[in-house]
Amino acid sequence: MIILKIGGSILTEKDSAEPKVDYANLNRIAEEIRQSLYSDEMSNDLIDGLVIVHGAGSFGHPPAKKYRIGEPFDMEDYLSKKIGFSEVQNEVKKLNSIICQSLIEHGIPAVAIPPSAFITSHNKRIYDCNLELIKTYIGEGFVPVLFGDVVLDDEVKIAVISGDQILQYIAKFLKSDRIVLGTDVDGVYTKNPKTHDDAVHIDKVSSIEDIKFLESTTNVDVTGGMVGKVKELLDLAEYGISSEIIDANEKGAISKALQGMEVRGTKISKE
Ligand code: ADP
């Protein structure tokens, strides 16, 4: 079973103040996923189980920022926070609907599983989440699609749960064989490659020591950026689940990675 995470930086115009889908990337990636899943006759399953997780990009981040979701607040502001929760949830659902539409049009039996409908957190980390239904969908050959979302938290009341955290949690409990994480850079560098010409590519990360020297991402969003991703993936590596971070802007990279072919990127693995 493979989990494919597609970043908000790929599927949306991430820095846009208005929610904007990158349709060229979305439709190309949907086609790459279809080719990786099925033979031409649409008969054989080439991959034994796929779950897709996507980020919130320019749909989720502006309202999350506007309502400061995740920051401490006084109970007198709770109603406004709840409106913020609803707004974020509604926006990420819209993005999810557009993504599922494209997947379906490309012949992929996508089924949306909104995290806010079945996950709660404790201090911004997932702690209650029943994955039985997802397992059943996978068993039937559906492709569950989850996404970064808002959830109820028993400590801070309202939390944003990133696609990266969801990926980490479900990979562990569904015992995923492999993780492919598509973002807008071809892996982890010694510095942010978007802002530093002297950034050096890191082929493999095996422990937190390997990324200790990294400056914290300058492209930080409410969910943590590149360092946050690597930490989630290192946690999985401890469980023996390997992952790779690849550039999903690169044509064919996702389809190659899904089929187990070599793609330039960063591997996160214990071995
Ligand atoms: P996504 O929306 O795809 O989940 P993010 O925007 O959260 O992705 O994170 C990817 C971004 O992290 C890249 O666009 C890059 O600018 C930034 N980044 C910061 N530091 C690094 C680093 N050391 N190596 C690679 N990318 C980095």
Task: Describe, in plain words, how this protein is organized in 3D.
By secondary structure, this protein is α/β, with parallel strands linked by helices. The protein has a single domain (2-183, 240-262), classed as Acetylglutamate kinase-like (Carbamate kinase), CATH 3.40.1160.10. The chain is 36% helix and 22% strand. It has eight helices and 14 strands. The protein has helices at 8-11, 23-37, 57-66, 78-105, 132-139, 163-174, 225-238, 253-258; strands spanning 2-6, 50-54, 110-112, 119-122, 125-129, 143-147, 149-153, 157-161, 178-183, 188-189, 201-202, 204-205, 242-247, 265-268. It has an eight-stranded mixed sheet, with helices on both faces. Strand 7 (149-153) and strand 8 form a beta hairpin. Helix 3 packs antiparallel against helix 4 and helix 6 (163-174) runs parallel beside helix 7 (225-238). The relative contact order is 0.17. Bound molecules: adenosine-5'-diphosphate. The site of adenosine-5'-diphosphate has 22 residues, from helix 1, strand 10 and helix 7. One of its GO terms (molecular function) is kinase activity. Keywords: ATP-binding, Isoprene biosynthesis, Kinase, Nucleotide-binding, Transferase. It catalyses: isopentenyl phosphate + ATP = isopentenyl diphosphate + ADP.
